[in-house]
Amino acid sequence: MVEKPEPEKLDYDAHPVFKTVPEETNNKNLGFFEIIAQAFCLVFQLQRGKGLKRATDLLESNPKSVIAAGILSMIIFFLICFTASQLAIKYLTN
User: Fold this and answer.
1) Is 32 exposed, middle or buried (0-12, 13-18, 19+ CB in 10 A)?
2) Nearest to 77 by CA among 44, 34, 35
3) Rounded-to-integer distance, Cα 50 and Cα 21, Å
4) What is the distance between the alpha carbons of residues 17 and 14, in angstroms, rounded to a whole number?
5) How far apart are CA 83 and CA 72, in angstroms?
6) Whole-prediction pTM value?
7) Does residue 69 form part of some domain?
8) φ, ψ of residue 35 in degrees (nearest 5)
9) Which keywords accompany this UniProt record (predicted)?
């Protein structure tokens, strides 16, 4: 009879930065200014490990504030694109 070797312990973290962030249980919603800061982090892809861990934890338990930050980041991105295109049109037509 052939015995199967036991599988080694696998890491199932979605992002390598999670290994360096201490575990915190903070499931309360993001505040107003935290939502705005999270939106700018999403737009410019600037995210500390602690913020990324908290956002993914909130997505699992209470995603309302993270979804609001995502919608706000889309609005900010489209406003930046619209403003840049309007400025380019204005300066190219003069």
Assistant:
1) exposed
2) 44
3) 6
4) 9
5) 16
6) 0.58
7) yes
8) -65, -45
9) Membrane, Transmembrane, Transmembrane helix
Tally of domains within the chain: 1
What pLDDT is recorded for position 34? 79
Asked if residue 17 is part of any domain, the answer here is no
- Give dist(CA 35, CA 39) in Å, integer: 6
Residue span of the structural domain in which 50 resides:
30-93
d(CA 61, CA 64): 9
Q: How far apart are CA 19 and CA 36, in angstroms?
A: 26
In a domain, 21, yes or no: no
The residue type at 55: A
Indicate whether 1 belongs to any domain. Answer: no
Local confidence pLDDT in tens for the 94 residues of the chain: 667 766 666 555 555 655 655 666 666 777 778 778 878 877 777 766 666 777 777 777 778 878 888 888 899 999 999 999 999 999 999 7
Name the 3-class secondary structure at 79: helix
